[in-house]
From TrEMBL:
Pfam family, one: Kinesin
UniProt keyword Signal present: no
InterPro entries found in the cross-reference section: Kinesin-like_fam, Kinesin_motor_CS, Kinesin_motor_dom, Kinesin_motor_dom_sf, P-loop_NTPase
Organism of this sequence: Aureococcus anophagefferens
Protein name: Microtubule motor protein
Length: 170
C-alpha cells in the first residue's frame, strides 16, 4: 500500500493545476493511476488484472472560466478528450456494430482495454449542490447516464493471459 501511495503522490506532483475565473486550483490534466495485479490461485492458475483509477479534469465552459492563453489551450484539450470519451461511450452503447474511436485521444487509447469486453467499469460523478453550478451538474449527470446505458459485455476470468496493452506495462 505504501508503494501505491508513493506512486500516486509522484503522479499528483506532475499534475497540472491553474487558476481561472471559477476555480483557483483547477485541474488542467487528467490523472490515471494503473495498477497491475498478479495472483496465484491454490490450483496454480495465475490471475492477472489491471486496475485504472482515473480522475478526469472537469469540462470547462470557456465563456464562464474566462480562460485565455495557456489556460484556454488546456481547456480546449480537456474538452476535446472528454468529447472523445463521450464518443467512445456512445459507440460502445450503440446497438449497431460501429467503429469505436479509441484512437481519437490519448485518454481513450490508454483506457481502451478497460472499456472493452473483458472489463468492468465504475464511474463516480461529483456533483455540486450550488445553484450556480446547476448547468455543469446536469451535464455531468447526463454524461453519467449515457455511461450507465453502456454495456461493455460480460467480464471473463483473466487466467494466464497478459493484458491487451501489456506493452505499456512497467
Amino acid at each position: 500500500m505504501e508503494e501505491i501511495e508513493v506512486w500516486i503522490a509522484r503522479g499528483a506532483s506532475h499534475r497540472a493545476a491553474g487558476a481561472h475565473a471559477l476555480n483557483k486550483d483547477s485541474s488542467r490534466s487528467h490523472s490515471i493511476v494503473t495498477l497491475y495485479i498478479k495472483g496465484t490461485m491454490p490450483s496454480g492458475d495465475i490471475l492477472r488484472s489491471k486496475l485504472n483509477l482515473v480522475d478526469l479534469a472537469g469540462s470547462e465552459r470557456l465563456d464562464k472560466t474566462g480562460a485565455t492563453g495557456d489556460r484556454l489551450t488546456e481547456a480546449k484539450a480537456i474538452n476535446k478528450s472528454l468529447s472523445a470519451l463521450g464518443d467512445v461511450i456512445a459507440a460502445l452503447s450503440s446497438e449497431k456494430k460501429v467503429h469505436v474511436p479509441f484512437r481519437n485521444s490519448k485518454l481513450t487509447y490508454l483506457l481502451q482495454d478497460s472499456l472493452a469486453g473483458d472489463s468492468k467499469a465504475l464511474m463516480i460523478v461529483t456533483a455540486s449542490p450550488e445553484i450556480a453550478n446547476a448547468n455543469e451538474t446536469i451535464c455531468s449527470l447526463k454524461f453519467a447516464s449515457r455511461c450507465h446505458d453502456c454495456a461493455l459485455g460480460v467480464a471473463r476470468k483473466n487466467v494466464g493471459r497478459k493484458p491487451l496493452l501489456s506493452k505499456f506495462r512497467p
